[in-house]
Design a protein that fits this description.
Layout lengths: L22 H6 L14 E7 L5 E7 L1 H4 L4 E6 L31 E2 L5 E7 L2 H8 L3 E6 L6 H4 L23 H6 L3 E9 L11 E6 L5 E5 L4 H11 L7 E4 L15 H13 L3 E4 L14 E9 L5 E12 L11 H6 L5 E9 L13 H19 L3 H7 L4 E2 L5 E2 L5 H12 L11 E3 L2 E13 L5 E7 L5 E5 L8 H13 L6 E5 L15 H25 L14 E4 L2 E4 L2 E7 H8 L4 E7 L3 H6 L3 E13 L4 E12 L6 H20 L5 E2 L4 E2 L17 E6 L22 H13 L15
The chain binds dioxothiomolybdenum(VI) ion.
Protein name: Xanthine dehydrogenase family protein molybdopterin-binding subunit
Pfam families: Ald_Xan_dh_C, MoCoBD_1, MoCoBD_2
InterPro entries: Ald_Oxase/Xan_DH_a/b, Ald_Oxase/Xan_DH_a/b_sf, Ald_Oxase/xanthine_DH-like, AldOxase/xan_DH_MoCoBD1, AldOxase/xan_DH_MoCoBD2, AldOxase/xan_DH_Mopterin-bd_sf
Amino acid sequence: MTQTFSSTGRDTFVGTPRSRIDGPAKVTGLAKYAGEFAAPGLAYGTVVSSSIAKGRIAAIDSSAAEAVPGVLKVITHENRPRTAWRDKNFQDAVAPPGSPFRALYDDLIVYSGQPVALVVAEDFETARYAASLVRISYERQEPVTDLKAVRGDAYDPPMKREGIKPPPAPWGDADQAFGSAPIRVQGGYSMANEHHNPMEPHATTVVVEEDGTYTVYDKIQGVSNSHQYLVNVFGLKPDQVRVLNPYLGGGFGSGLRPQYQAFLAMLAAQELKRSVRVTLTRDQMWSFTYRGEALQTIALGAGPDGRLAALRHDAVQGTSTFEDYQEVIVNWSGVLYRCDNVALTYRVAKLDTATPGDMRAPGAVTGVFAIETAMDELAYATGLDPIELRLRNYAESDATAQGKPFGSKELKSCFTQGAERFGWAKRDPEPRSMRDGRELVGWGVATGIWESMMMQSSAIATLTPDGRLTVGNSTGDIGTGTYTILTQIAADTLGLPMDAVTTKLGDTRLPEAPVAGGSWTAASSGTAVMKACRNVGEQVFKLARAMENSPLANVDVDRAVFADGRISVAGDPGRSVSLVEVLQAARIDKVEAVEQAGPDKDFNQKYEAYTHSAIFAEVKVDEELGQVRVTRVVSAIAAGKVLNPKTARSQILGGVVMGIGSALEEESMLDHRIGRFMNHNLGEYHVPVNADIYDIDVIFVDEEDKANPLGVKGLGEIGIVGAAAAITNAVFHATGKRVRDLPITIDKLL
Ligand code: MOS
């Protein structure tokens, strides 16, 4: 922990490996998820999804469904209660520009799988059966879902997405420099559409309380976002709705925005004046957000020494017809490498699909795959070792931000320590030169990069006379370990054991915090919790000094040391008093504080903040079967201070596993004739399973950063970035085949 009250400071729990404190609840089933909360008289809703991608609903016949005993209501756009869509263009906290999708608003169909009816019944089975009886006829129009077909219609999004930097203006003359470069690499790169598929599908339970207020359990990465959405869309007062989600079964970005099941559950609860639960099925997880495929081209020009003379990276990505989703994709290429002639462009094209959305390291996963594969091609074209090539073009400042320096950047240490651990020096660069029995062996490397961000966040801390401390805010722990790190921070700040601290999250009655996303939660909520605890500590110190015969009389606050449940005097440990004694002597039932934390404007004016990684992959390829196994990965991470090496390592492991998925397996396939994702199940949409995962070794290099008082940069996303490139580069090294279109399925290697 950084210094709190005294010049000595303490670091008892922060920086040490700790198991997730929410782990036992999760593995014993005590943890409840949004679709598991019960309520008296709970009714169940099943969503009917559109079978066409574009057109209009001509007629809905719900009579057969309504005739089923136990069915309470079939809600469609025709009989939709008028309680909804008070603010019909309300944009949630992380919405891209445009007009958000509105369920059951009218007869228009804008994507396949769009919700068109909600069947509510006394029990789940009845609702599901009755939903199968709803007959809908459509006036069908031809959908356009093939990005390649509309590539030429791509446009610069007219409105910028908040928080997302558009591509910087070009500098130098990339095309001219490319034309005259002695060594050139040029290619097209693509990645498939991917869907998040957290273990917990989306669900919402709306409980109608006796006083007419609503308690909503929603699958969301930050309850404040759902709260604002429901309040505005239904024209409610903020205190009429409380949203909770104590636990999430994963999110990966699919839970950043409120989804239609939350809207439908509230709509039905209002209409029926009953508590309602709506749970999406696994196949309905393909009916909203996804990582949209992108078509990219890269042109690199270099001298024989490998120094970049030209860098051009162009990307086109799909968006829906109603929102301009943007994740930019190309900017990191300009951040990673020093080059005098750079052009970066990003455009979007409209498709008849749901709006794509953020999926773990949105944009970076896609763009860094392309640039880091192209850099490997350039390494071969120049005859340089891929690490040496990267070091020769190492950026010491951020060219996309007018050359601002990085707050910290220990990427060189990542290369050095990662290469050492991996044994990179033993690599024979010649493709097809390494074998293990009948398998070809390949070693590849890539860089990873992700923004280090901090968001405005608040938190509460409450100390009670029993010596217990409770801290919290409204953000969600999406499985990343937020409960645990906040507990560590709080315990260290006030010198308490971890088990004297209770951390509460995911409740709109707690101080407001943003969605858990963007890898910003440790910095944002962590700093807010630390500040709230410090405030409590200062209050307790004042009470202690005011005690009769106080051992701390006349002591300045900066000499107070909080440790072992006591306040003592630095350099004079004999003088101390316990926190419990102080509160009891003061005869108060609690000491409490709410504090705000936000980005450091002075720091951000001077510096740019990124996390970095060097990722090394070994693949073994069976050429006769086309099978690729990723047998070894070393991921060396520079992300500032690591609060908890155990949960931090787990984040990187999960990121690497997801990266193996995008490199080799994940692909949501559209049938363009009907505009529908066809493999909408986990039998046909492949994700890595345990048998696909071998050794993954994580290194955290030392890095000191001052963007926030904790010195953290965020770890939730960096683990996936670059993983796919390291694997494609290893596959090239093994086989001599350069695959530029992900995933590398068997057919691409035979
Ligand atoms: Mo993340 S894609 O910001 O949940």
